[in-house]
Amino acid sequence: MKKLRRSARIVDLTQYFLNHPQELIPLSFFSERYQTAKSSISEDIDIIHEMFVEEGIGGLYTVAGAAGGVKFIPSISNEKAKEELEKICEALSNGERLLTGGYLYMSDIIGDPAVLRQIGRMFASAFSQDEIDAIVTVETKGIPLAHATANYLNVPVVIVRRDSKVTEGSVVTINYISGSTKRIQTMSLAKRSMKEGANVLIIDDFMKAGGTIKGIIDLLNEFNANLKGIGVFVEAEGPSERLVENYISLARLEEVNEKEKQIKVTLGNFFDKER
Q1: CATH number 3.40.30.10 is the correct assignment for the domain at 78-271
Q2: What is the CATH number of domain 6-74?
Q3: CB within 8 A of 146, min separation 6: which ones?
Q4: 3-state SS record for the chain
Q5: Which is deepest, 33, 64, 161, 207, by most CB within 10 Å?
Q6: pTM score of the predicted model
Q7: Are 22 and 124 contacting, i.e. CB atoms less than 8 angstroms apart?
Q8: Cα 119–160–147 angle (5° rounding)?
Q9: In the prediction, which pLDDT does 180 show?
Q10: Residue in 201, 203, 206 with CA at minimum distance from that of residue 229
Q11: Domain map of the chain by residue range?
Q12: Other C-beta atoms within 10 Å of 122: how many?
C-alpha cells in the first residue's frame, strides 16, 4: 500500500480493526502496510481507541512484548444495549406474534440484518473476555444469531443437527429429553466440526425449560469441550427450576394470554450480570 496521509491512514486502520475483531495484530504489520514509523501508528491507535470508547463500540488494547500487538475487542455500552433491547421487546410484545404453545414468531426480527448486528454485539460484549474457540447452536433459528455473534468474536460457528446428514461425515449422536414437552429427541454433531477440548459458547434463540441447551451440553461433553457461556435471545417465564444455569438472556417472555392474544416481553438478565 502506498504511503497515506494521517486522515486516510486512520480511516483504513479503523476499517481494518472492525473487520478483524479479537485478532492480535503486531504494530510492525501496520508500520509496513503504511510505510510509517511505529510511533505514528501508536498515536493513530490512541485516537481510534478514544473514538471507539466514546461511541461505546469497543476498544483497542495493546499487548506488550515481542509477540505482542494491538487487539480490537468489540463491546456495546449499557445505554445503547438498553435502547436497542427496549425496541426489540416492544416489537416482540405484539400480540399477533403469538403462536400455539406460547411461542413467539421471531423470524422477521432474527432476519433483520440491523437487529442481528446489535444482538451479535451484545452477546460478544457479554463474553468478550472469555477465550472462545467456537460458537455452538442448534438448527435452525439459532444459526443467524450464532453467526452474528461469531462475526464480533471472530470464531467459527458449529451447528448441532436434529438429524445427521451424509455430508457431515461421521457424527456423534445422543438422545435428550425436551424440557417443555418431555419427549425424547435426538441431536448430532459431526466429529470434524470441532477440535477436542475447545472452549465453546452456546447461542440459542428461545429457551423454556432449557432441555435443548442441556442436550447440547451433554453432546459437547462427548468432545471434552469447555463450556464458557450460554447466550439466549428470549427466555420464557415458566418452570421454577431450569435444566441449565448461568446463562445470559437478552429478553424475557413474562406473560402470554393466548385467548386475548396478549404478550408481555421485558428485558432479560443481560444487565444483571457483571460484564
Answers
A1: no
A2: 1.10.10.10
A3: 135, 136, 137, 157, 159, 203
A4: CCCCCHHHHHHHHHHHHHHCCCCCECHHHHHHHHCCCHHHHHHHHHHHHHHHHHHCCEEEEEECCCCCEEEEEECCCHHHHHHHHHHHHHHHCCHHHECCCCCECCHHHHCCHHHHHHHHHHHHHHHCCCCCCEEEEECCCHHHHHHHHHHHHCCCEEEEECCCCHHHCCEEEEEEECCCCCCEEEEEEEHHHCCCCCEEEEEEEEECCCHHHHHHHHHHHCCCCEEEEEEEEEEECCCCCCCCCCCEEEEEEEEEECCCCEEEEEECHHHCCCC
A5: 207
A6: 0.90
A7: no
A8: 25
A9: 62
A10: 201
A11: 6-74, 78-271
A12: 26
- pLDDT for position 216: 95
pLDDT per position as a tens digit, 48-85: 999 999 998 999 999 888 778 999 999 999 999 999 99
Residue 268 near residue 248 (C-beta atoms within 8 A): yes
Backbone angles phi, psi at 202, to 5 degrees: -95, 130
**55: which 3 cell numbers?**
461511541
Asked if 213 contacts 202 with a C-beta cutoff of 8 angstroms, the reply is: yes
Quick: pLDDT tens for 215-232. 999 999 999 999 999 999
Residues 6+ apart with CB under 8 A from 64: none
Contacts of 94 (CB under 8 A, 6+ apart): 263
Say if CB 139 and CB 187 are below 8 A apart. Answer: no
C-alpha cell at 139: 438448527
**In contact, 145 and 213? CB cutoff 8 Å:** no
Residues of the chain with pLDDT under 70: 102, 179-181, 238-240, 273-275
